[in-house]
Specification:
The protein is α+β, with helices and mostly antiparallel strands. The chain is built from 8 helices and 13 strands.
Length: about 240
């Protein structure tokens, strides 16, 4: 499975670390991330990409535009793409396990989330028609156990995705990319309800926009995850600090 890696040109250390911890991946295509600090925001507003009152940091704008560019690539190529951010840490058997998960999906799947931020919740439809599930995790403990994660024997299954913070890695179909674009543009102020977290969480990044779409598209999540992130705000290029 080819990975399309989003990485800023100036983030050479992050790229080197990604390659070090993910040397086992078969195929990675680096995609130069959009530098949100160098874009003409008014031009994006005039083009209908951003709403004029959108409260995004420059890093969040660049991240959003980078993901949107890959959604358009999926549509242009008419094939699914696997998108990863440069802090992603892949399980050593990702290629095999991800293929086995995708093989269980309906033919009209739109998106599969392979990982999420462990500092908040994951909501998914554990028992369809019976009960959803809200799961919590330990981000600090994960940061010290990423090598163990990569070696852990896993038996992932796909569940309908309801809510998850982060966009560290996912696969998107051409139809799914088209639906995400329809939901996303223009990127605008909105709120999304996250169970046990906030009934009206504000739009601070492209992952919130994606969450707004999950319930209306064929979005799935791999549980347990096949990709994790240390999710360290101190070195984030999107939401510093």
């Amino acid at each position: 499975m080819q990975i399309h890696l989003i990485n800023l040109d100036r983030s050479v250390d992050r790229l080197a670390e990604f390659r070090r911890v993910n040397a086992h991946l078969g195929s990675v295509e680096r995609v130069a991330a959009v530098d949100g600090g160098s874009v003409d925001r008014q031009r994006l507003v005039d083009a209908g990409t951003l709403a004029p009152d959108l409260a995004y940091t420059p890093g969040a704008i660049g991240c959003a535009l980078s993901h949107i560019g890959l959604w358009r690539m999926a549509m242009d190529r008419r094939q699914p793409l696997t998108v990863a951010e440069d802090d992603a840490i892949f399980h050593l058997q990702f290629d095999v396990l991800a293929a086995s998960v995708i093989a269980t999906l309906p033919v009209d799947w739109d998106l599969v989330l392979w990982g999420w931020n462990f500092d908040s919740i994951l909501a998914f439809d554990l028992l369809p028609g019976i009960s959803p599930c809200v799961a919590r995790f330990n981000q600090d403990q994960l940061r010290n156990a990423t090598a163990k994660f990569q070696l852990r024997a896993l038996g992932p299954k796909a569940y309908r995705l309801l809510r998850a913070f982060g966009s560290v890695c996912y696969s998107v179909s051409p139809a799914g990319a088209n639906k995400l674009l329809a939901h996303a543009l223009p990127i605008r102020p909105l709120t999304v309800a996250f169970p046990t977290v906030d009934p009206a969480f504000p739009n601070r990044g492209i992952d919130i926009v994606m969450n707004a779409a999950y319930s209306s598209i064929a979005a799935f999540v791999s549980f347990p995850p096949l990709v994790v992130t240390r999710n360290d705000d101190a070195v984030s290029t999107i939401q510093p600090g």
